[in-house]
Amino acid sequence: MIRITERGVFSSLIFLFAYVILFRTLGLRADVALVPKMAGIILLAFSGVQVLMDLFPAVRKRLTFLNRNSDGSIGGEGVVQEQDEAGDTLFARYRFFGWVAAYIALIYLTSMIWATIIALFVYLKWINKESWLMSVLYSLGMALFIYLVFVLGFKLHYLL
Amino acid sequence: MGFLSQLGAVLQWDLMLIMVGSVMFGLVVGVLPGLGGTIAMVLLIPLTFGMSPEASIVLLLAAYGASNFGGSITSILINTPGDAVNAATTFDGYPLAKQGKAGMAITAAMVCSALGGLVGLVVLDLMIPVARKLILAFSYPDFFMLAVFGLTVIAAVTRGNTFRGLISALFGVLLAFVGTDPIVGGERFTFGVEYLWDGIDLIAVIIGLFAIGEAYTLSRQHQSIASDIKVESGISWEGVTAVAKNYWLFLRSCFIGIWVGMIPGVGGVVASFMAYGTAVQMSKTPEKFGKGAIEGVIAVESANDAKEGGNLLPTLAFGIPGNSAMAVLIGGLMMHGLSPGPEMLTKNIDTTEFLIAAAIVGKFVAMALGLMFGTRLIFLTRIRGSLMAPGIIAFGLVAAYGAGGKIGDVIVAAAFGLISVFMQKYGYSRIALIIALVLGGLLEASYHQSMTAFGVSGFFTRPIALVLLSIAVLSLAWPLIRRKKTRASA
Q1: Which of residues 254-293 of B touch A (CB under 8 A)?
Q2: A39 touching B, CB under 8 A?
Q3: A7 vs B424: CB contact, 8 Å cut-off?
Q4: What is the CA radius of gyration of chain A?
Q5: Distance from CA of residue A69 to its chain's centroid?
Q6: How far apart are the first and last CA of chain A?
Q7: How much is the pTM?
Q8: Are B89 and B293 in contact (CB under 8 A)?
Q9: What are the residue ranges of helices labelled H in B223-348?
Q10: Looking at this predicted complex, what is its ipTM?
Q11: pLDDT in tens, B92-104
């Protein structure tokens, strides 16, 4: 039975990426496309297996050797951190992503300095529930630091 | 020793000022749990924009080296490693602190870190002539096999899950192909986006994967690791004599660190745990370990810093980053027109010697400042992760944007921050991705050059290429062999 999860969506996106790259090699000269094609085919095969495992629990059970985690992972890399999450954790995660996206939009629409003041204040006051004083001082302090070091110090005027 | 000729160039007042500031920053970052040398360097990247290559090297390496010192202080005092590489220091460092010997443990850790770093970097310096001869013997097929070897060793990095580690590496390789192709110079996989013509910016990817990814983790920590521990600053001669008495353990651990550090992909965590394990095995009193044996601290801290010399060898000589921090260093050097690889041992040998000299001086500045102020920085552990997160993101985005004023770099950094969150959550390896992103270009270029100059036979007839291929196959097969061995012995 198919089971659509965030993990499955993530591995599907990697699969899709490999497919798109492979598809784009069709219009390229043979020698230019060769190495990307080789790497793309392998990634497509590997990520395809991963997608099947993530979408179909029965496949995952059959291919246990591909899901084995040893204790010897380095610095926590390559180890699944959490299996299930509560709804509020999921909400917090997507709210965080939304905030980063809004921050970038602000950089594009205003400038790095103004975007930093607004985005940090919003994060601290309404997402992190800090006090007014902390939110104002933190956001203004960070913006002032960026202004002094990068704009005045390094003459990066495009940050303004 | 070539680095001696560059010591004078390092000991300039302006560079020393940068070094002191950078060491203090590295100590602060090291003390903050969850942040390590890689993040310290990522956050300093924007400060290098207006600097000379020499000043940038001093800034990045001093902070990276000092972060290890900071991490060991929290390991000893509050049983919380600043970074994964300091985890093994907690085993005996914290019990020592509970016995009232924190000063001794911290001094021993600082002395071992500084001297360990010195040993590692001197060995690196001594190995440069050998590496240079080896590199001059390299041809295109050998470089291709070297890139293949670098990628397969990623399997070792991702022992947690080799399969997803390989997916991460292949993902990184494909990302490296975005931009301009090396044969006709035409645009490739850019999807009509002009920004992608220069390829995906390495620094933006690193900022996303490490700074923004870690900031997300920190944003979920709403409680501080409060500590009221007070320890007197300054040197404890008991700690110094402990290191002197255990000089053989110190040297052995240094060489473990250097050896492990040279293998691309195998991080400092392995070096420190391996050194600790060897110290226990070879001790006459193994029962003392874990209960406050100073030998445990000496072994871990010596290996931890000595491995930097080992790390730098593949990074500088072959352009293969041994770990994420080395990938950041490569990015930082590239921003200043220096491309790690054979040129660093030939045309830019003076820069390499300067780099070694700066790293050595940085170790001793870090030791001095660590002993003076290190324990006072413990108050920083009271800062909540959720409060640090927005500052790190702001600084990360400035770093991405400041490099070229391109909004595309900011978007790439944010996108890889998001990817980093899911990679960590579902067991994909960020280190594998970043190493593959760095090696992808070398892999493709050397493949085409080999085919043009030697044909297919070049890959299987040249001795260096064959040796590298054998090691690559062995590194892939090693987990299976080990598993079979374990089963057989069980």
Answers
A1: 266-267, 269-270
A2: yes
A3: no
A4: 23
A5: 23
A6: 54
A7: 0.81
A8: no
A9: 237-245, 247-262, 268-282, 294-318, 324-335
A10: 0.91
A11: 888 888 787 888 8
